[in-house]
């Protein structure tokens, strides 16, 4: 960890925070989800760099140590796609592997679909190819208290829910809730933060020190942008019709990841329907893996990532 270098890189008028280790000729760019940040890839950065790759993790715009856009309410997933391409330009990287977790999978796939010449391969954790738009997540098939529906509501409700607690408590609550195999759904008279039992300990693979790092970064950025992207922009049509990802791809699925219980998602993956969009796709299941499988089982995930990189990094 102490060998990871940090800097800010000018990208489309914003300074993005970049964590980097390794100096190999082939680059691997890691894209976080929520409530994650660059630090979520701490195990993977060191492991990938030790095998001769240039490993890079960013804080997306509006997250952590990266700058906020002037008008975050106007942003969509396409802004993240443009940021990734511009970042590659700024770092003089012609082509890279992209690794995306949670919502970070969406811009990873979209970069590959829109700019195939820039992508050597795609690895995603938990989230298959998904096109932002009205049908991205079938909210209407889940109860009103579904966490995505609650966080997509007009500005105010989620902010008030989070605002009852300090940032560290919010991150703790979400990490514990999202580590379970059940979808977080609140009752009519509850908010999402009310689902948390203060007596519940952190998962054994996530330390108080880890939590403090996350909290310090979200204290810097707050939750304004994360509630916009991904949640309030997830249903915004990105203007693509039937995109294809030609790059070799790997999807790592924890079988105890609650996302598998989203309407249609498990069938979409297990039947191979996802390969309509990503024809050259390998799918690997981890029996005990949860939504944070890369932090929960880092050695197994690192091995899968490195095997894929070595296979396709010709």
Automatic annotation (TrEMBL):
The keyword Transit peptide does not apply. Coiled coil: none annotated. InterPro entries: AB_hydrolase_1, AB_hydrolase_fold, Epox_hydrolase-like. The keyword Hydrolase applies. Keywords: Hydrolase. This is AB hydrolase-1 domain-containing protein. Pfam families: Abhydrolase_1 (PF00561). Belongs to the AB hydrolase superfamily. Epoxide hydrolase family. Residues 27-131 form the AB hydrolase-1 domain. GO terms for molecular function: hydrolase activity. It comes from the Eukaryota. PANTHER family: EPOXIDE HYDROLASE.
């Amino acid at each position: 960890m102490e060998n990871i270098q940090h800097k800010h890189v000018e990208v489309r008028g914003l300074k993005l925070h970049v964590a980097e280790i390794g100096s190999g000729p082939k680059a691997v760019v890691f894209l976080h989800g929520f409530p994650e940040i660059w630090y979520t890839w701490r195990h993977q950065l060191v492991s990938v760099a030790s095998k001769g790759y240039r490993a890079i993790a960013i804080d997306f715009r509006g997250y952590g140590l990266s700058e906020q856009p002037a008008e975050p309410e106007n942003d969509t997933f396409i802004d993240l796609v443009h940021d990734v391409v511009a970042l590659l330009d700024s770092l003089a990287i012609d082509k890279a592997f992209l690794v995306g977790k949670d919502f970070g999978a969406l811009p990873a796939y979209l970069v590959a679909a829109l700019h195939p010449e820039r992508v050597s391969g795609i690895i995603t954790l938990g989230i298959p190819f998904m096109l932002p738009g009205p049908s991205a997540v079938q909210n209407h098939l889940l109860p009103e208290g579904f966490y995505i529906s609650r966080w997509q509501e007009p500005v105010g409700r989620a902010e008030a829910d989070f605002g009852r607690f300090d940032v560290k408590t919010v991150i703790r609550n979400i990490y514990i809730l999202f580590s379970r195999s059940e979808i977080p759904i609140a009752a009519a008279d509850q908010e999402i933060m009310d689902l948390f039992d203060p007596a519940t300990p952190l998962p054994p693979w996530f330390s108080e020190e880890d939590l403090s790092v996350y909290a310090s970064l979200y204290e810097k950025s707050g939750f304004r942008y994360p509630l916009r992207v991904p949640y309030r922009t997830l249903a915004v049509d990105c203007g693509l019709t039937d995109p294809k990802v030609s790059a070799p791809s790997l999807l790592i699925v924890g079988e105890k990841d609650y996302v598998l219980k989203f309407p249609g998602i498990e069938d979409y993956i297990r039947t191979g329907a996802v390969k309509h969009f990503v024809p050259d796709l390998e799918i690997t299941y981890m029996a005990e893996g949860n939504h944070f499988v890369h932090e929960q089982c880092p050695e197994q995930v690192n091995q899968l990532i490195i095997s894929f990189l070595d296979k396709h990094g010709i």
